[in-house]
Amino acid sequence: EWSMANYIEESVRQIRETVGDKRVILGLSGGVDSSVAAALIHKAIGKQLTCVFVDNGLLRLHEREQVEKLYGDHFDLDLRVAKKANLFLGRLKGVSDPEKKRKIIGNTFVEVFDEEVNKLKKRGNYAFLAQGTLYPDVIESVAIDGNPAALIKSHHNVGGLPKKMKLDLLEPLRALFKDEVRELGSELGLPKEVVWRQPFPGPGLGVRVMGPIRKKDLDVLRRADAILHEEMMAADLYYKVWQSFCVFLPVKTVGVMGDERTYENVVALRIVESVDAMTADWARVPYEVLRTISSRIINEVTGCNRVVLDISSKPPSTIEWE
Ligand code: XMP
């Protein structure tokens, strides 16, 4: 009889059998899929699994610390954190074209990850690269490979990595759909914030600061985004929408604060409902909630004196702005 508990037991048995006494590397992003894959493989082989988390300088507020706390401390997982913010931001300096930004971030990620893998290989018998590939990813990658025109925005997923690294793929979620992965994650003890987390793009905040990325603009965006997150949680809306995030606009507008004139940047709120991200509609968030979000961002975040709301649906707009 099929049950999640049986499924876990069977997966654990298979992972142990496949891996034997070798070691496994997994690129942990903190998203649902890689987190559940990590928890499942960790349950099967414990410290034979090493997770690599790359801090690319484009993460949300306290994101790295949260990953370190949950996986390093709580799950006692062998976690390596590659702190590479300067490398990524250096290469992105002055780059404004969205596709160029994505390519730089994607390529730099592959390079950093490859470096970590090589360091690890010197330490022990690493033979597998684990990925949180789901059943729909398997289908999608076939579609994309067969028809390059279908790829509207270059996707930052780690396809193609293992060949070059001489590692075998370990993909224990390959048969599962997203809802099953969430159930599996809960069963494995991952918290709701991870299992029901909103999607976050691979290039991170790099595609949410419009145009060239500057450190100080990233900081403004991070603080605004954290406030939006807090208020969506407080209003009990965070888990009800598909995504809610801020976008930094490199546009300055005039404002007034006390007796002083300000001249600062604009932050846009992007809050959408969707079932599969193929189409999306802007969420009808109550005015009172929007008012709190806006006044908190303008009052608490230096560098932003205006908040606007994105009321575009997909299509013809996309969810992300770049
Ligand atoms: P768009 O902007 O194309 O986004 O409507 C659709 C969904 O995909 C997410 N997204 C990405 N996810 N790597 C990802 O893993 C990426 O490069 C990427 N770009 C966009 C986006 O957040 C939305 O949920």
From TrEMBL:
UniProt: ATP binding residues: 29-35
Keywords: ATP-binding, Glutamine amidotransferase, GMP biosynthesis, Ligase, Nucleotide-binding, Purine biosynthesis
Recorded metabolic or biological pathway in which this protein acts: Purine metabolism; GMP biosynthesis; GMP from XMP (L-Gln route): step 1/1
Reaction catalyzed: XMP + L-glutamine + ATP + H2O = GMP + L-glutamate + AMP + diphosphate + 2 H(+)
EC number: 6.3.5.2
Enzyme class: ligase
Any one of the GO CC terms: cytosol
Subunit relationships: Homodimer.
UniProt protein name: GMP synthase [glutamine-hydrolyzing]
Biological source species: Coraliomargarita sinensis
Lineage: Bacteria, Pseudomonadati, Verrucomicrobiota, Opitutia, Puniceicoccales
Residues of the full protein shown: 194 to 515 of 515
